[in-house]
Design a protein that fits this description.
By secondary structure, the chain is mostly helical.
C-alpha cells in the first residue's frame, strides 16, 4: 500500500503530545509484530484481541493502526481462512478501526482517524473483492463483521465502493443472498443495500434483477407490515430507492407483484389505530412509495405520462385507505394526515376517473355520513395545522384543475343560507351541503373578526372559479344578507371579499404586529380570489366597480408604503384587470377613467414599479418546486419530534420570510405564469387606452355658443377656427400620450413624470420629437460624408504612393543626368589635353561634344515632360483635398525630402 507511508508521524501532529503519540505508535507496532511474526497461535490471538481493544477506545491508536495495520490484517484474511478465530479477530479490529469513537468530541476541523482509515482501505479494489468473498464463509460472525465493514466503507466512501462492487463478478449477488440469511445478517445486508442503491442506477437494475421486490415484501410481511420495527423502514427505504425516477422498475413491480402488498400496509386494523413512533415512520415511508409511483419516471422519459397515468389508475384502490388516514383518522399524527392528503391530490390530478371516484365517496357511518369533499373542506376551515391546510387545499386544486364539470358541480351547491343557520354551532355543519359550508366559512369572520377561516375558504373558491366563466357568472349572483335588516340590503359576495380586504388594511395600519403575521398570507389569498374571478369576466369587473369605494381602496393599497410587496403588487394587478376587461361606458368606470385615476392618484411610474417589485421577489424569480420533499431516511426520521417539526416548522419562524409555506402554495408556478402574462396584457391595454381619445365630451365649451349680435358668417368662421385649433391640440395630445405609453410599456415607467406637473408639456414634446428627427437625419448625412471621406482618403493614398514612385524615377533620371555631366566634363578635360598634345584632330572632338550634348538634351526633355505631368496630377489632387477640408501641405510634408538630400550633397561635392 503506497499511502501507508503518508500516515506515519501524523499522530503527533494531530493529537499534540508527540511522546504520547509515539507510545501509541510503538504499542500498536509491537502488537502487529506479534500478530505477523508470532510463533504460538495463542499469543497471536491474544495480540489481535488487545489490538482490537485499544483501537476501539483510542483515536491515536486508530490512526497508528491505519498507518501500519492494514497490510497485516488483510494478509490474515487472505492467507489464514482456516483459522476462524484469527479471521474473526482481524475483521472485528477492522470494524473498530473504521468506526468513529463516539465519546470523543473534537473540533470539526480535526482529522478523524476513522475517516482516514476508511479512505485508505476503500482505495484498494483487491480489499473490497476479498471482503465480498468472505460473505460465502459459513461462520456467522465472519459474515456479520464483513457486512459491518462494507457498510462503514459505503457510508464514508459511497461512490468509490459502488464502482468497486460493480467491477467484482457476482458482487451484488452475494449481497442479495444475505437477505435470506439469519435475521441479524439480513438486517445488516438490508442496511448496506439501502446505502448502495442511492443514486446508482446500474446497481438498482442488478438488485431488481436479483429479485429484490419479492424479498423486500417477504421481509415486510414477516416483520408485521406497518406495525413492524425499523427493519420495515429499511425495506421501504430500499424499495423507494429502486422506484425513485425509475420507470422501468415501476413497470416491473406493477406487472409482476402488483401494488397489493404495498396497499395492504396502509390498512388499519383493530389495535392498529394506535400510532407509535416507528409505525408513523413506516406509514410515511409507504406513503412516499405511493407518491413515487404517481410521479412516474424522469421528466425526460418518453413514456413518463403514460406510465404515470397507468400507475394512478391502478392505485385508485388505495383511495379508501388514504381517506381513512388523511381524513377520518383525526387521531393520526399530523405528518401522516398531510402525506395522505397529498397522495390523494396526486392520485386525482389529471385523471378524470379518479376525480369521479373521489366525488362519489362518502365517509362516516349511518346516519352521520357525508361526502368526502365536505370532510376535506371541513379540514381546510377548521384545522389548526398550517401544513394540513396546505395539503387539503392541494386536493381541491387537483380536483378543479381543468375539470369544468367538477367546478360546475361544486358551484351549483353555493346557495346562501339564512343568517340564523350561519350562526349555528360549528358542529352542525355535518348536515350542510358543500356550498353552504363554504359560504359559512367565507362569512365566519363577521362574528369574531378572525379572517383565517375566510381566507382558507377563499382559496377553495379560487379553485372553483379558475378558468370557468360559467362558475364566475353564477357566483356573481350570490348575495349575502346582512345580520339584521336595519344594517342594509343584501350585497354581492364579491363586495364582502373586498370589505374583508379593507378590514385587513385597517388592522395593519393600527397594529403592525398583526400585519407581520396572519396578514402576510391572508391578504394575498383573498386578492388571488379576486384576480381569478375578474380575469376574462367583464361582468365581474362591472360588479367590482359598482362600488366607487373599491377603486379608491385599491389605489390606496397600491400607494400605501406599509403594504407588503405582494399586497401592493396584486392590488396593481387588480387595477390592470379593471382596465383590461372593462366593457363599461359609464364615466369614471370605463377603462379611460381607471387609467386616469391611476395616473392622478398613484402615478404610472409608481404603478409599474409595484409590478416590477413583485416580479423581482423570490417567489416569482425562484424556479424551485413548492412541494419538493427530501427522501425519508433513517437520519431524517430519527424521531417523531423531528417529523412534527418538519411538518409545522414554519409556524414559529419569521413570518416575513418569503418562503412562508402558505405563500409558496399561493404563488405556485401556474399562478406566477398567469400574473406575468397578465402584466404584459395590461401594459399593452394601457398603451391602447392612451392612444385613443375619450369617447364622449363631458363639458361643452363656451366658444361653441353663438354670441349676441354675431352674424352667421362670422359665427361659422369662429367655429371653424376653434375646431382647427382643437384638432391641432388633440393630435398633439394623442401623439404625446401614445409615445409616453409606449415608453412606459417598454421601460416600466422609469422615465415618466405626471402630466399635471408639466404645463406646456405637449409643445415641448413635439419640439423634442422634431429635434430628434433632425438629429437622426444629421447622423445619416454624417455617415454618408464619412463614407465619402474614407473613399477620397483611399484615393489620396493611392496617388501618394504613385507620386512616391514618380519621385523615385525622377531621382534615377537626375542621377543619370549627373553622370552625363561628369562624362562630359571628363571628355572636355581630355580634349584639352589632346589639343595641347596635338595628337587628335579638332573635328573629332567637336563631333563627340555635339553627340553628348544631344543625348543629354533628349533625356532632359523627357524628364521635364514627366515632371510636368506629375505636377498637373498633384495640382488636381490638392484642389480636391481642399474641397474636402483636408490640409494639403500636411499631407505633402516630407515627400521628396529623402530623395533630395543625396542630390544636394553631390552638388556640394561638385
Amino acid at each position: 500500500m503506497d499511502l501507508v507511508s503518508g500516515y506515519k508521524g501524523v499522530v503527533g501532529l494531530v493529537f499534540g503530545n508527540e511522546n504520547s503519540a509515539s507510545n501509541e505508535d510503538s504499542y500498536v507496532e509491537r502488537l502487529l509484530d506479534r500478530i505477523s511474526n508470532g510463533v504460538l497461535a495463542e499469543d497471536r490471538r491474544t495480540a489481535i484481541t488487545e489490538l482490537q481493544s485499544v483501537v476501539a477506545e483510542n483515536q491515536a491508536a486508530q490512526l497508528a493502526f491505519g498507518a501500519m495495520g492494514f497490510p497485516v490484517l488483510m494478509g490474515i484474511l487472505k492467507e489464514e481462512r482456516n483459522d476462524v478465530e484469527m479471521v474473526r479477530g482481524a475483521l472485528e479490529t477492522l470494524v473498530s478501526a473504521l468506526t468513529p469513537i463516539g465519546h470523543v468530541k473534537g473540533l470539526k476541523s480535526e482529522v478523524q482517524p476513522a475517516l482516514m482509515n476508511t479512505d485508505l482501505l476503500s482505495r484498494e479494489a483487491e480489499s473490497i473483492s476479498l471482503l465480498l468473498s468472505l460473505l460465502s464463509e459459513e461462520d456467522f460472525y465472519i459474515r456479520y463483521y464483513t457486512l459491518q465493514i462494507l457498510t462503514a466503507l459505503l457510508h464514508n466512501s459511497t461512490n468509490r465502493l459502488q464502482e468497486a462492487i460493480l467491477t467484482i463478478p457476482r458482487g451484488i449477488t452475494r449481497l442479495m443472498d444475505m437477505l435470506m440469511d439469519r435475521e441479524v445478517i439480513r438486517n445488516e445486508a438490508l442496511l448496506l443495500l439501502t446505502y448502495l442503491t442511492r443514486e446508482a442506477e446500474e446497481i438498482q437494475k442488478i438488485v431488481v434483477f436479483e429479485g429484490a421486490f419479492e424479498k423486500i415484501f417477504s421481509i415486510i410481511k414477516e416483520e408485521g407490515g406497518s406495525d413492524g420495527g425499523v427493519v420495515v423502514q429499511d425495506c421501504l427505504e430500499l424499495l423507494n430507492n429502486l422506484l425513485r425516477n425509475n420507470a422501468s422498475n415501476q413497470i416491473l413491480l406493477r406487472e409482476t407483484m402488483g401494488f397489493e402488498p404495498l396497499i395492504s400496509m396502509l390498512k388499519l386494523r383493530g389495535s392498529s389505530y394506535r400510532f407509535t413512533q416507528q409505525k408513523t415512520i413506516n406509514l410515511l415511508s409507504a406513503l412516499e412509495t405511493i407518491d413515487l409511483l404517481m410521479r412516474g419516471g424522469l421528466e425526460t422519459d418518453a413514456g413518463k405520462d403514460a406510465n404515470r397515468l397507468t400507475n394512478t389508475t391502478v392505485l385508485i384502490q388505495v383511495l379508501d385507505h388514504l381517506l381513512m388516514l388523511g381524513v377520518e383518522s383525526q387521531w393520526a399524527p399530523v405528518a401522516v394526515r398531510c402525506a395522505a392528503l397529498r397522495c390523494i391530490g396526486d392520485l386525482i390530478a389529471g385523471n378524470s376517473r379518479n376525480r369521479d371516484a373521489l366525488s362519489s365517496k362518502v365517509l362516516g357511518e349511518q346516519p352521520q355520513v357525508e361526502p368526502a369533499l365536505n370532510s376535506i373542506l371541513r379540514i381546510i376551515i377548521r384545522s389548526s395545522s398550517m401544513q394540513e391546510f396546505i395539503a387539503a387545499d392541494y386536493v381541491f386544486k387537483s380536483f378543479c384543475e381543468k375539470n369544468i364539470d367538477g367546478q360546475t358541480m361544486l358551484a351549483s351547491t353555493l346557495i346562501p343560507q339564512p343568517h340564523s343557520i350561519n350562526n349555528a354551532p360549528l358542529e352542525d355543519d355535518v348536515n350542510m351541503s358543500f356550498g353552504s359550508m363554504l359560504l359559512r366559512g367565507l362569512t365566519l369572520s363577521e362574528n369574531d373578526g378572525d379572517l383565517e377561516p375566510c381566507c382558507r375558504a377563499a382559496s377553495v373558491l379560487t379553485h372553483i372559479l379558475k378558468d370557468n366563466i360559467q362558475c364566475k357568472e353564477r357566483v356573481l349572483q350570490i348575495e349575502l344578507e346582512a345580520p339584521s335588516p336595519t344594517l342594509g340590503a343584501p350585497e354581492p359576495l364579491m363586495h364582502h371579499m373586498v370589505k374583508y380586504l379593507a378590514i385587513l388594511s385597517s388592522i395593519r395600519n393600527k397594529d403592525s404586529s398583526y400585519a407581520a403575521s396572519k396578514n402576510l398570507y391572508v391578504e394575498p389569498i383573498i386578492q388571488k380570489l379576486l384576480i381569478s374571478w375578474l380575469a376574462q369576466c367583464p361582468n365581474a369587473v362591472k360588479c367590482f366597480l359598482d362600488s366607487r369605494f373599491h377603486l379608491t381602496y385599491l389605489l390606496e393599497l397600491v400607494s400605501n408604503p406599509s403594504s407588503t410587496v405582494f399586497a401592493s403588487g396584486l392590488a396593481a394587478v387588480l387595477l390592470g384587470i379593471c382596465v383590461l376587461y372593462n366593457k363599461s361606458t359609464d364615466s369614471g368606470k370605463d377603462a379611460f377613467g381607471i387609467v386616469d385615476a391611476i395616473s392622478q392618484k398613484v402615478g404610472l411610474t409608481s404603478y409599474f414599479l409595484k409590478l416590477e417589485e413583485m416580479q423581482k421577489s423570490h417567489l416569482f424569480s425562484s424556479t424551485e418546486q413548492a412541494r419538493t420533499r427530501k427522501p425519508l431516511t433513517r437520519s431524517s426520521a430519527a424521531s417523531l419530534a423531528d417529523i412534527e417539526e418538519d411538518v409545522d416548522e414554519n409556524d414559529s419562524s419569521d413570518q416575513k420570510n418569503e418562503s412562508h409555506p402558505i405563500l409558496v402554495s399561493v404563488f405556485d408556478s401556474q399562478f406566477v405564469d398567469f400574473i406575468k402574462q397578465l402584466e404584459a396584457d395590461i401594459r399593452e391595454s394601457m398603451v391602447e387606452v392612451y392612444s385613443q381619445p375619450k369617447s364622449q365630451v363631458a363639458v361643452v365649451p363656451a366658444e361653441l355658443e353663438q354670441r349676441g349680435g354675431e352674424n352667421d358668417r362670422d359665427y361659422s368662421k369662429r367655429l371653424k377656427s376653434f375646431v382647427e385649433k382643437q384638432c391641432f391640440e388633440i393630435q398633439n395630445l394623442l401623439a404625446r400620450n401614445a409615445t409616453l405609453a409606449e415608453d412606459l410599456a417598454k421601460t416600466g415607467g422609469s422615465g415618466y413624470s405626471r402630466p399635471d406637473h408639466q404645463p406646456g408639456g405637449g409643445a415641448d414634446r413635439i419640439h423634442v420629437e422634431k429635434l430628434r428627427i433632425d438629429l437622426q437625419e444629421a447622423n445619416q448625412r454624417l455617415e454618408i460624408l464619412k463614407t465619402e471621406k474614407a473613399k477620397v482618403e483611399s484615393e489620396a493614398s493611392t496617388y501618394q504612393n504613385l507620386a512616391g514612385k514618380m519621385e523615385s524615377d525622377l531621382k534615377s533620371l537626375s542621377d543619370a543626368y549627373n553622370s552625363l555631366e561628369q562624362a562630359n566634363f571628363q571628355l572636355e578635360k581630355e580634349m584639352k589635353i589632346l589639343k595641347n598634345g596635338g595628337n587628335t584632330p579638332s573635328l573629332d572632338i567637336e563631333a563627340i561634344k555635339a553627340e553628348a550634348r544631344e543625348e543629354s538634351e533628349a533625356e532632359l526633355n523627357d524628364l521635364l515632360v514627366c515632371l510636368g505631368q506629375e505636377q498637373s496630377k498633384v495640382e488636381k489632387l490638392s484642389s480636391r483635398l481642399k474641397e474636402l477640408g483636408e490640409d494639403v501641405d500636411q499631407l505633402l510634408e516630407g515627400i521628396g525630402d529623402d530623395g533630395g538630400l543625396p542630390e544636394d550633397d553631390e552638388e556640394d561635392e561638385d
